Amino acid sequence: MFPGHPGAVGRARRSHAERAAAKLGPTLEVVRLPTAADGRGDPEMVRHLVEGIDVTAVAAFDDNVALTVLAATRRTGHRVPSDLAVIGFDKGQHAALREPALTTVRINATAYGRRAARISLGLDAGDWTQPPSEVIVRETT
Question: Which of these, 94, 107, 98, lies nearest to 140 by C-alpha position?
Fold first, then answer.
């Protein structure tokens, strides 16, 4: 699920998600998440995903979008993760505070930044010495 217009970062994340889905076999469907007037996720979107088209998991653009999905599931009465698994991205500070605690992907932004700087300066970027990202498994998956 993506917010309004995700820009370059959103396009890159979508491209990575499409490649991963092609390798793993599931169908990837990008859904724009409308926000309710109160700022929480639209419960009808969650109801449509779970009941209308039988979606079992949401990989959100970032933790904020994932938290919006979780707020909407609470309003529809759907249970996470048994009715709908949810994973965020960026390991935001509020991900662990939510009940259920949000599973998220943490990227090593410092390592990415150093590598990008070395490449842009024409220096040897070297090999990755640690994983560029990791899944922080919590209660929503």
Answer: 98
Closest CA to 109 of 136, 135, 132: 132
Q: How many CB atoms lie within 10 A of CB 36?
A: 15
18 contacts: CB under 8 Å, gap ≥ 6:
28
How confident is the model over 82-117, as pLDDT tens digits?
Answer: 999 999 998 878 888 888 999 999 888 888 888 889
The two structure tokens encoding residue 50: 């779970």
The tokens for 67 are: 């938290």
**Longest CA span, the chain:** 54
Angstrom distance (rounded) from CA 65 to CA 138: 17
Q: What global pTM score does this model have?
A: 0.79
Residue 104 makes CB contacts below 8 A (sequence gap 6+) with 63, 66, 87, 88, 89, 90, 91, 92, 95, 135, 136, 138
Domain 7-136 has CATH 3.40.50.2300: yes
